[in-house]
Structure formats: C-alpha cells, structure tokens
User: What shape does this take?
Amino acid sequence: MTVLSSRLSRGVIKTPITASFEFFPPKSEKMGETLWETVQRLAPLNPSFVSVTYGAGGSTRERTHKTVERILNETDLAPAAHLTCVGSPKAEVDAIVKDYWDLGVRHLVALRGDPLAGIGAVYEPHPEGYAYATDLVEGIKKIANFDVSVSGYPEKHPESGSWQKEIDNLKRKVDAGADRIITQYFFDNDLFDDYLDRIAAAGINIPVIPGILPIHNFEQTMVFSAKCGTSIPEWVARRFAGLQNDPETRKLVGVAIACEQVMDLVDRGLTDFHFYTMNRADLTYAICHMLGMGQQGTEKVAA
Assistant: This one.
C-alpha cells in the first residue's frame, strides 16, 4: 500500500497543514485571465501568502508589480513580491522596494536571479547593483522591516560546486536578515532530510518551507530539472511512461505523486509547504483539498 492510500484509508491528518502558492506574471491578456481564475480558485484554501515571480533582469517587473497590486487590492491574500539583483542599479531596486512598502506589501522574496543570458550562463553582477542575494536582503532590511524569504536548494545550486559553499552562502543570507527559506522543488524526501541536517549543523534555525511541484508536463519538468539541478527519481519517470497523449491520466498521476510526497513529509514533521502552481489551479487545489486545507476544522481528509 502506498503512503497516500495508507493515509487516506485512515482518513485523518492530525496536524493542520498550511501552504503558500507561487504564480508568475502573465504575458498576455488571455494568460492574465487564466491566472486570475487560478487565484480565485485557490484563495478559499487560505494560503499563508502567495508569491509572484520576477523575470530575469527585471523583464517582468511591471507585470509583477501589477499582479501583486491586484492581489492586494482585490483579494484578502497576502502577496509576496519576488525581487532580484540582476540588471539593475541599487537606486532602482531600492525605489522598487520603497514603492512596494508604500503599496502595502510587507513580504519580499529576495533572490540573486538567473543570468541575463539564461540558466547555465555566467552570472555577472550589475556594476552599480546588489551583487548577490545576501546584499539584497541587507538592502531591503535597511529600507523597511519587510518579511524576507530567500531560496534554498536541497540538491545544491548548480553553481555552488560543494555543499560547504552552498550552506555558507545560505548562512550569509540568514545572517543578513532572512526570515524564512523556501526551497527549490524536489522529489526525494530523503535528500530534503539530509539538507535539513546540514542546515541545522550550520546553526541556521529559521523556518524552511519545502517547495512542491505538482507535475503538469513531465517532459518539460525533466528539461527544467536538468537545468536547475533537481533529480527525478526513476519511480517518478515510470509513473508517467506511456502517458504522453493522455493528459487526464497525467493529471491524476501528478496529484498522486505530490500527495504522497507531502503526506510523507507530514509524517516527518513538516506542516508548511510552498506549491509551484504554474498558474494552474487544478492539481494544486486537489492536493491541498486532500490535505485538509480549506475544510472546516482542517482535520478531515476522507470520510
């Protein structure tokens, strides 16, 4: 019996689950409609916050700002705006930070950002900008008392080279004032446990929220995972084998995999999760509903 079927047969999660959702700014009016439908669909799940990403070099800056502003003005959700170091001088970034504070945003996700040429290219700091996420966190905290999240990588950032460098860099971000760590998505929970051990050994004691990716398109997930350094276990690949032309079954498989992963993390003591929604509500909503989110009392999963 799988972890999921075993938990569902018992029908109860004893500890309430909380979650946050990540969106990306829409590139067209049609995509904007889809995003807003997703926001409205997921809002009743009462997420702790919803984050909106920021394109390389600020390529989506205005769209990110408009999306965050609309969430703030038209919903009861707490938006968290992503901000990167790439392609902008400090004065420009500082002005954006101040503008978010004046708008009423109180949570920022501070990231170095991908190189302008894309993942895998050599990163070059802006000569007048914040060089790395550590510097950005320090700059944000000097401007206002934002709640600041930073990224973490359970399988190391592709540029780190060693675990020592990876954890040292994370520690610098925490020492600069980061309030929580949101991790890159992963599929092997044992690797996440190892990551938590490394963090604890380094004296890092702020919350670590595991990133969960419900798989909508397995082929695209494989391509992106290879770039960002996330491994895909063979058992995950086997579950999607032969389903290239069967989108409905792929959805069911994606939900099952994510539910099993989160249920297992709950058994390991985790209660808070960050879902990469890909601006789609279906899989994330189903997973969170099965976890008891948005239900009266939050303890029932199945009758």
